[in-house]
Records
---
Amino acid sequence: MIDTTSTADSVTARLTARRLASVPRGVSQGLPLVLSEARGAVLRDVDGRRVLDFAGGIGVLNVGHCHPQVVAAIKTQVERLTHCCFQVATYEPYVALAERLNQIVPGPWPKKTLLLNSGAEAVENAVKIARAATGRPAVLAFEHAFHGRTLFGLTLTGKVHPYKIGFGPFAPEVYRLPFPYCFRCSESRPQGGCCQASDEYFSSRIATLVAPEALAAVIIEPVAGEGGFIPVPRDFLHALSRWCRRHGVLLIADEIQTGFGRTGKMFAMEHYDVAADLTTTAKSLGGGLPISAVTGRQEVMDAPIPGGLGGTFAGNPVACAAALAVLDVFERERLVERAELLGDKVRERLSLWQATYPWIGEARGLGAMQALELVEDRASKRPDSRRTALVQKLALERGLLLLTAGTWGNVLRTLMPLVISDAELAEGLDILGSALEAAN
């Protein structure tokens, strides 16, 4: 068991004090944990304590911490070329990674890929590309969305606290629709379909927001990540795709948290048999190194003029080498299939807990991207962020790192590395079960 009330002379306490003195408070620290090393799905803190990782660096480490093949690729590339800027001189790792992504991102058409540093950069550049390709200014996003912390990313993001408060005014020409959040929908669905999944719904709602002919793109997460691990209903995404095609609006799939096996498919859009015009990826692409991408239709990606896209560090050769190794690991270790198996095991336990505790409103997810939404009671569905935080704290005390999510902070989510062993997964789920019982 981890003592999260560290004594004043512990290494954790000393480093935490140094952090408070040197780092601005806006960079939050959700949990009292100071790490020294990690391997696979196991963390070690500076005081030597072992912690199982169900957070994965917020979904960055699907191949696990310090995967040997990724580390080897990084070491090899560091000794060859660390930087020159891809707009100045071409190097093979960038081109090779673009080729790989063009092959595996959903969509039957020829594609091209732009490499960048972060998910927010990928989102901003996807919008730039969509505007250049369509000649239109407006973008449609959804409630409960998270698309980054830059100005335009924050504008697209639907959660005010803590992301947007105090940072306005925001970018113009961004409009928003309700996310299809079935657990919190008041409409009856006798046929089991989504009440928002129709051309009539989109046309009537958008009519009061923006002219369709002014819309460059619609951006959506196939599973809302920070919004609470909410999968988009299949019929909704199909209806949205049809509406976009009819009005010449580009569809952007934000696969930054869902991509690279997390949902039991390489990309979450594969669950829906819908291909986006532009797909943004980041997080687990680099296995811990900063890299992101926009992959899309060749003619759309070619719309910006030369010099309109890029970045000094975008597609850094070391990060590219890491990403290529990550894709190799996925193939060799069959991590997409592994994610599906992990999801089955996690879902079984989450469903059992939902049946046990009346304050668990819903267990949901795709593949290994599973979550519990905690409520005061199922009748009112009032979010219970207090108990959610308590479960997170109790889990850490027992040796499990767990993240919360959701607009109201009342969702517990699972982002364990896909390389986690069966024994480690069982241990982590047992700890989570113990924390839930203690919070009852």
Note: The chain has a mean pLDDT of 95.
---
Amino acid sequence: MKPNNDLTVSPEDLYEFQNIIGVQFNDTKYLIQALLHSSLFSGDKTKLDAFKKVNDLESDNYEKLEYLGDSVLGLIVAEYFYHDEEIEEYARAQKRTIEGVLTDIKKILASNESLKPLAEDIKLEKYILYGVLENISDIFDDVIEALIAAIHLDQGYIEANNFVCNHFDLRGALGKIDGLNPKGKLSEICDKNGGDFPEYRLLDEQGPDHKKMFTIGLYICGEQVSIGIGNKIKDAEADAAEKYLKKMGSTN
């Protein structure tokens, strides 16, 4: 979505998106803020400031809303599973704390892999306000978390909770925990085998600040065994660990 020549955002586009997500905002400035990426106007600060003023925005992008949305999602997850006996049984069987399991569930729900189908369902790419991005799908998870926060600020917690429960697979997340932490699984295998623990080394870093791409080498006993790539160092490390686990035949 691109701003109009007068830097306003099309009311028709905003109305259309609200109908898709099933939420009608009292003040669409929260929705606009949630959809605003820092690449809009290609870093032209003067134009961005004018855009903020015209649309009554508080920030240059969605990042503050994303942070808030992450916290709201955590509360929704905790409340959803509060009376759930299955999660207690899982935690006991895995000798883990409830807090740890809930943290993993939130990670799964907020991951880009989990949210890409939702982004496609709500046609998110069409409505994000951005300039030039190599791969816009890499920010879908961030924008959706910002959207949760925008709903919370404008409509309140109940409406944010309804949005998450309607669009997120809360129940299915528990069954995906085992595949969440390839780094932890690899460390556990190395510990049981009495070998050296995995070492992750940064091999390359490319791209502008808002669009970094990291290459990480995974080393066991000083030997490089795999290479991972990701937009964040932790994602590249996880990618390297997962690739090595597949080589070992230990993904299951």
Note: Residues 182-248 form a domain with the Double Stranded RNA Binding Domain fold (CATH 3.30.160.20).
---
Amino acid sequence: MSTSINKSVYYTIEKPAVAEFKDRGSKFIAYAYPIISVESFKKHLADLKKENPKAAHHCFAYRLGIDGNNFRINDDGEPAGTAGKPILGQLDSKELTNTAVIVIRYFGGTLLGVPGLINAYKMATMLALQLTPILQKQVEVNYLVHCDYTNMNEVHNIIKQYNCTTIKQEQQLFCSITVGIPINRQEEVLYKLRDIKGVELSILK
């Protein structure tokens, strides 16, 4: 995998996409999803299995995070290396992360052999990824920001100014905001936020 992903930006897909590839009667339907966690991937997989109970295989690959270590492939009964690996190969060729592709196969009665299977899973994945825009996103570090209502506007202005992501906001006695701060602007943003009276910051692991 290219190391260019380990910088201040990463690439993912904008929205789900579906594509179909046929070979000698077998249908390979690829579903591409942007994901943020293993849990979100598992939900997509469970939903597809429920919707396609008669499919012979539900093969997949996903990659999460930016260190290159959080990925998984599954051949789901196909010969080893013929499904999950070519699916992951397509994700990596586009340097995608926080992305999953599940390819379901309806068997057409003719064995495709190892080269045929590798090609089918690769092509189905490639077609699905062509149907959704690729986004460049900033690598962010998540922080919890506690502040008083009187400081909320000031905090929001800084979040907006530095293109931070508001992940969650809760309002009780005080305001609590989970915010993703771009890694290459982290020092500036933290300095500005700490400059506001009564603001407390804690990094989220």
Note: Residues 1-6 have pLDDT under 50 and may be disordered.
---
Amino acid sequence: MKMPDISLLEWQERYGTERACAKELAKVRWPDGFQCPTCGFTKACYITTRKLYQCSKCRHQVSVTADTLFHATKLPLVKWFWAIYLAASDKGGISALRVSKHLDVSWGTARNMLRKIRKAMAHRDSIYRLGNIIEFDDAYVGGKRAGKRGRGAEGKTPVLIAVETRKKGAGFVAMKAVDTVSKKTVRQFLSRHLNPGQTIRTDAFPALNAANETQQHEKKITPPEKAFEWLPLVHIMIGNMKKFINGTFHGVSSNYLQEYLDEFCYRFNRRFWEPELPLRLLNACLAHVPIRLAEFD
């Protein structure tokens, strides 16, 4: 869906007040007008002192943020909207420390805001499936210290990466951090991100042979110096992803790696619509279901 471009000043003018933010959220939540989540009635009165809608039929009270990304938040919606803008508009991503300074919130609060926003990014990308010819490989990310490169590297987290090939370069990309590169994790990844019957290219690593079960699998033994010839796009994605993580977040532990991968993929998959990203991300967040902090434990 085409979204309009928006500048920082336009964002401030449009979403600079609590009322404007709540109105935007209500529009996404109830596009045809208020609807009671309990009885479905379409009329309500607004209790200004409590910021709640009360159904005119069953008297059920509900806030505009209930059962949304902002469920039970104690922060002003204006700060949430600005966090979304900052996360979307900075091409290299933004750290929790910078968000905390911009919005005058604690580092922990900024961290949780960004985690929820990245969850919405992942949810939006999860509805797509890769097609065309797909390059598929694994990489290893992180680690407390430098050491062995590639498979078997101590302290590093394996990541599965798939990227579409198109005439003018890469299409959409998908990445998943896994405990180990095995036929089981490969099957799960392919089931989640690809439709059956796609042409998929890999090196000859045995675990990747799981692609034979549902895809048109093309494999070739590729020594490191030949990797860019057989799988050029996926290795470019690996390099760009590592630069993104190291440049913005200066490394990452396995506990947080997936959310950074989700942000990288979301941003890369919309790289041609960069001026639209703030409104695209806002729409993804407003339409997203609640995210409990327990999901991150």
Note: The first strand starts at residue 44 and ends at 47.
